[in-house]
Design a protein that fits this description.
about 80 residues; single chain; mainly alpha; 3 helices
């Protein structure tokens, strides 16, 4: 899975979680305030974490295969 697609997928999953908060939490006003306060930092940190994880995982796979990305770019 490419890094951009993984970041987008994590954002979509987080939006689903925010919708769950809005549907199930009462009173609704407090749920809206909660989602507004956590949405941006949580979305950015989770999407960034997924991208960093995939970058690290891909590097470990490349190292296991014995390929070097920087060497391939020079050739």
């Amino acid at each position: 899975m490419n890094k951009l697609a993984a970041g987008i997928l994590s954002v979509i999953i987080l939006i689903y979680h925010y919708m769950q908060i809005l549907v199930f939490c009462r009173p609704a006003e407090k749920a809206v305030v909660l989602v507004q306060s956590i949405a941006m930092p949580m979305t950015l940190s989770n999407a960034g974490g997924v991208v960093i994880f995939l970058y690290t995982f891909r590097g470990a796979q490349d190292q296991k295969k014995g390929t070097n990305i920087s060497r391939q770019k020079k050739e």
